[in-house]
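Quick one:
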Amino acid sequence: MFKFAPIITFMRQFALLSFLTLIVFCSSTWAQPDKMITNRDNYFWQFGIAWTSTDDDGKELNPMPIDQLHGLPFPSRLYADRYIYNGWSAEGVLGGQAYDATKKVNDSIGVNGLLTYFDVALKYSFYKQLGRGAIDPYLGAGAGFTFRSADPKQSAPLLTPTVNLSAGCTFWMSKQIGVQAQGVYKFGLVDILGKASYAQYSLGLVYRIEKTDGYKSDFHKPKYKLPRKPSRIKVEKQTDES
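Output:
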């Protein structure tokens, strides 16, 4: 019989290494001065809200069962995206999802309560390669924490650290406003490809704050200003006494 233990151990070690690398990268990025982490050829910040659907039925071979998706009629995902450099950006996400008791959660029916999560991700956008047009596809990888309600029928752990892989695309309707579609799979570190893992799909609106060409950071501002014209020293004329 094929043993999964070595594979699971390797994936856990890889996930931990990826998470630590992400933390170090984000820390060094945010610690750099604004002059180093901005690029006027792209945006400055992005903020968005989205409607989400969650696939938590535990069936890995059926990644998007339409009849088993848990969703809400109002936006339940908030995110902020900070541009770094040359297509790379860092994203923070906060969201939640209410379970539908009529739909399956892993191996149970009738699960009530909430699924909430906090995620961070490092993303790469292909916007510049496509000519900075209306289509902006991207890929992302990151980590997060998922909290589930302590329902007796809930077979997944109450708290789960996850490693996340995402893919999405933003369709820009103007220079500032776009529609963003995304899919993300979250690998639960307590049981890889098990009951703690789940997928989410989202559709939302994003607002982009562009970087202006006239922007100047504090590094461009001179501390001392010298007068443009040299001052003249007045010398009084002396008259000869007769």
